[in-house]
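Example record used in the benchmark description.
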Amino acid sequence: MVERGNPRVGPVQTEVDRRVGSVEVLAGLLVVVLLARGPLDAVLGTPIVQTWTTVFVSVVLQAVPFLVFGVTLSAAIAVFVPREFFAKALPKHPALAVPAAAATGMVLPGCECGSVPVAGALVRKGITPAAALAFLLAAPALNPVVLAATAIAFPDRPSMVFARAAAGLAASVVMGWLWLGLGRTEWIKLPDHSPGGPRWRAFTGAAGHDLVHAGGFLVVGALAAATLNVLIPGRWLQAVADDPVLSVLALAVLAVLLSICSEADAFVAASLTQFSLTARLAFLVVGPMVDLKLFAMQAGTFGRRFAVRFAPATFVVALGCAAVTGTVLW
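Model output (structure tokens):
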């Protein structure tokens, strides 16, 4: 007599055998590294690779503490601070609510990943969109964590902290007022939002998501900064850096493409020593307000019609404020 359970053993065992876990992947990588140890030593020992590694590691290690601190506080504010708090704290008049909301962003830590959904929640609570958008731009660009990171990244240039705060605040307020004068309600299409679950679970989920998401962009930014320092010929970078107009525009566009988290971008900007302070200021002002990931998040939160109008206008205003501030100060 044949047992009924025996035929199932084969397929189950085969399915288990086919699974490849993280331990197996790690073991395979270690074997590959050991087999290629000789060629790897030769490559890693070259001066250009050592310089690249030094720049990359230094940027990441300096930025990670601020990144962790920033996303933790951002998640705590998004989950534990009542949304009604902002409605009660802001002035009733829309024109006055815009600078007040921007100032609120300066004292409440938050990164780009957290400011977009918070701004959407503010609009749902009845706050004028102009004030919510001013907060959206100011919070990731001007909060205490970002300014502290900027001060550490530019220890010999304390004026960079003031310049970043002044230009960022001006850009946030100008964009809020522009929305008051030119914006249309039908451009904003907010999806239904009904968060649920325990607060601590929401907090850990938000913090973990933002840390992984922003950390990935930090690594990409550090890779790009290290590559710019070692692979691109110095005369090319110097040619761009020597042009006062082209250098500012180039770093502003680079900030949009790299999409680095605002808690970490100061360390990348500090490594771009070929460029002027004004150009690096443009990198710091434009990046937290408009980049590729922000465009995607704004389109998902407020709608595509909003994003295709708001992002280009923000780029022009932020770039102009940075250029004017840098020209006046330096």
